Amino acid sequence: MKNSLFALIFLATNFIFSQENFKIEINGKVFEIELDKNYELKIDNNLLKVKVKQKDTLSYSDEAFSFKFPKEYKVGKTIIDEGIEQLFLMTAEGSGFIIQKYSTVNPTTLNELMINEVTKESVNYGFKLEREDYERVLVSGLKIQVDRAVLKYNNEINIYEVASIGKKDSGLLIMTMEMDDIENSQGKKLINLIWNTLEIK
Predict the structure, then answer these.
(1) What is the CB-side half-sphere exposure of residue 113 using CA atoms within 13 A?
(2) How far apart are CA 11 and CA 189, in angstroms?
(3) Are 65 and 195 in contact (CB under 8 A)?
(4) What DSSP element (H or E) covers 135?
(5) Distance (Å, rounded) from C-alpha 182 to C-alpha 201?
(6) What is the CA radius of gyration of the chain?
(7) Which of 61, 70, 102, 147 is the S-S candidate for 66 at Cβ 3.0 to 4.6 Å?
(8) Which domains are present in the chain?
(9) Separation between Cα atoms, residue 150 and residue 81, nearest integer Å
(10) Residue 86, helix vs strand vs coil
(11) Residue 187 dihedral angles phi and psi, to the nearest 5°
(12) pLDDT tens readout for residues 130-171
């Protein structure tokens, strides 16, 4: 009985990051379950009441950094080029947080290039660009310089931030994209949560 409960907890915590239906195997028996639904499972003549819940805030961690993010999102990964891996979380409106990991070059000279690349089309369209660069202190106490560009056109506001942390031949480039400037927007909540919990290892 104790082993059955341990297996249930272990499997639940490992599958909890998926948004789809789950299968839990206990003592060779497979049960299909969903999040936030009550189940009664009979294991070795014992009736177990089971409900798998997902935390409101999830954690991502690898060898380079860690952060927390809302459960509504998934961390996407893609390879941009050899030696460049990109992680991203995006809202339906296009706001989001991007981290690029460089394993062959130091990206600290790329801030201005990235700002220019993501803003030039809007500037050509007629957006007015204002720079609001600042220093941010991460949860670990690490201080980083953030290049911030605010684009305004009529009542539309887009905000881009770029920061980088580098070593001799490696580093991280961080970029946020905020497609509005509404205080409680989903994009602002996502970006603020990641910024406020981001820890560089």
Answers:
(1) 6
(2) 30
(3) no
(4) strand 134-137
(5) 32
(6) 21
(7) 61
(8) 2-50 (no CATH), 57-200 (3.40.1000.10)
(9) 29
(10) strand
(11) -65, -45
(12) 999 999 999 989 999 999 999 999 999 999 999 999 988 999
